[in-house]
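> forwarded from #structure-qc
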């Protein structure tokens, strides 16, 4: 088992107990925090795979900190802890993007499976985000090439296939990606 984890709880004893359980199971605890502000800062610095965070803390609560961490993308996943199994907290935890929710007192047999599942879901989400970013970039490049083809067709009065072939040939001849050729062609006469 592996995973870089930050533990956030205002009770030092609780943090120590969780840390012992995690490290014994082979996880790497890369940071600890006592409130939401410290949690946000720790995530920005360490970029953990998982944050295990108490909901009720002084200064800044775990729900608000979770929302900020998820928005910034500074952790791959969050498990929220609470002494309360209130439906209102569960609804907010879902809204704020938590991968798990555990009620204190924590037991190793409930914590470790939740950690393992949350790490897997966090990694899955991270991979999907990377793929989405890659596909979005590819789509934008395709749009730019289409725009360049259109401009070439208009300027040189050639077919779409001829315009594509011209862009491709320039790309190969000059050893630059087609997207760069397309961007420069679109800049013509702007």
């Amino acid at each position: 088992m592996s995973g870089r984890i930050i533990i956030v709880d205002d009770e030092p004893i609780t943090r120590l107990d969780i840390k012992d359980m995690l490290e014994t199971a082979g996880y790497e605890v890369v940071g600890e925090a006592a409130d939401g502000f410290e949690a946000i800062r720790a995530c920005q610095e360490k970029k953990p795979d998982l944050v295990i965070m108490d909901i009720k803390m002084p200064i800044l609560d775990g729900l608000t900190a979770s929302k900020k961490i998820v928005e910034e993308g500074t952790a791959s996943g969050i498990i929220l802890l609470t002494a309360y199994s209130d439906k209102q907290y569960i609804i907010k935890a879902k809204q704020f993007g938590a991968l798990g929710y555990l009620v204190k007192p924590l037991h190793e047999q409930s914590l470790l499976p939740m950690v393992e599942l949350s790490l897997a879901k966090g990694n899955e989400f991270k991979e999907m985000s990377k793929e989405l970013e890659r596909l979005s970039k590819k789509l934008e490049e395709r749009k730019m090439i289409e725009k360049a083809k259109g401009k070439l067709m208009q300027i040189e009065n050639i077919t779409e296939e001829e315009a594509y072939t011209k862009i491709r040939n320039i790309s190969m001849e000059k050893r630059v990606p087609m997207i760069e050729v397309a961007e420069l062609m679109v800049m013509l006469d702007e």
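QC bot note: The chain has a mean pLDDT of 91. The two ends are 56 Å apart (CA to CA).
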